[in-house]
Amino acid sequence: MKILIPVDGSENADRAVDYVIAFAEQLKAKPEIFLLNVQWKLALGNVKLFINQETVNEYYREQGSEALAKARKKLDAVGFDYVYHISVGSPADAISRFSEDHQIDQIIMSARGQETLTNLLLGSVASKVVQLSRIPVLLMN
Amino acid sequence: MLEMLSSAQFWVDVLKIIIIDLLLSGDNAVVIALACRNLPEAQRKKGIMYGVIGAIGLRVVLTFFAVNLLSLPYLKVVGAFLLLWIGIKLILPDEEVHSEGGIKAVSHLWGAVKTIILADLVMSLDNVIGVAGAAHGNAMLLIFGLLVSIPLIAWSSQLVLKLIDHFPFVIYVGGALLGYVAGEMFVSEALFKAIFVKQPVLFELLPFVGAVLVLMIGKWLGKGKVNTKDVVDLVDEKISATTREK
Known about the structure:
The complex is a heterodimer. By secondary structure, chain A is α/β, with parallel strands linked by helices.
């Protein structure tokens, strides 16, 4: 079973990792775990004239690694194997596409993620993933 | 001044300016953050501060420049066409440029500040022309436009991206709005006054023509282009018991 856990570095998101660790014990075979962090594509149009792609990618990589750090530590602590991944784009699009590309069986994620004002006003990433995804999505409250 | 606040037109203009500011400001904040990335910790805060102050200063200067320039003959026509183009550019999907160009983030303070100011000079132009057009010479609106754009220079970035992600039509609203303002600017050109007085219907019509033009040309030019809303993969790594031991 392939499980995708999208994380954004928030505590809410990381609780999905705790859940998967507990849940994995009830499965016959150890699940394959995929951690995914998606960075918003900040460098558009004009920005690219002034900042080279290498610098931009480094920035995404650094931010992504930071967002993944706590979730990875949790999995390392229990000795689970996993794949981690950083994508750049719109989070919900990237999550649903990743799940298709890697034939994920289930997405497990926080219903809220980062509790920023914009997320409160515009709706969470989770609600859009539910719309887009063709596989089961488990939302944690 | 109080009469102005109670007119519907004033509030419509305020709304226009907010939309233009929102859609044409975010890039500055990104450049400031990225240009200062490679600076040592202590200098980074300074770099960001100088960058923000420089960008705001430049925005103010450019705005007043633009307003004065737009009062010269013919330049409103030039401004109108620029606005049309800015509107079209806004709708066009962002093209992936694989140029080796662009400036590598430098590790000294003044290099970073120079990059920021240079980028602001280019990137603020869109915003300044848009706001100057929408304010049509009203000083209060102009200052309001500046005030709205300042926090966006300093922070913004993800706000606008999220907004567009949730409501993709915002881009088209913005493009059409810029086309509309371009039309308004065109009809306010003093040289054409004689024509427009005879055909007052053009006053009403041309802004809409501008909006439709932007949407049509934008759609048409954007046809064959790949939308880089597509996802880019950056890091992919497997961690297992064996890799962990290393």
